[in-house]
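One chain is below:
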Amino acid sequence: MSYDHESIKQYIMNNLDLVAQDGVIAGRIVEKLVAVNNNWKNVGCNNKSYDHIDHNGNKIETKSTGSIQQNRYLRIGGLSNKNKSCDIIQIIDLFRNKEFRVPHDTFFKYATLKYNQFWWSCDYKLNELRGSIYNNTKLLLEYEV
């Protein structure tokens, strides 16, 4: 059995759908695509503070998800160490192909986090929502790119 670069490439080519559906792998690829699509400096995946630096010098943390929870919601996690460590929280909805860039201070002032997770509605219909899901969905919609 081999685990070299060629073996990894061959596995990916033989399992494209499986690889693309893996949330961890998709998230890493999205982080790289964000840098390429915006011509931003990529400082590396899983940096403790942020993923990119934009043309204005803003430190941007990118989070993405496409996994529907409870048939109604999307969520991202790993946000506790991002407080006071970046300028913008960028959220990519892979399910609806939406992108949001929320200023750090606004995000941490108005977002409702439960157990270090940010939940919102996958269909973005505010009139059908209440409580923290309503607030979080509304926050995102105000900063849609």
The chain has a mean pLDDT of 89. Residues 5-142 form a domain with the Trna Endonuclease; Chain: A, domain 1 fold (CATH 3.40.1350). Residues 23-38 form the longest helix (16 residues).
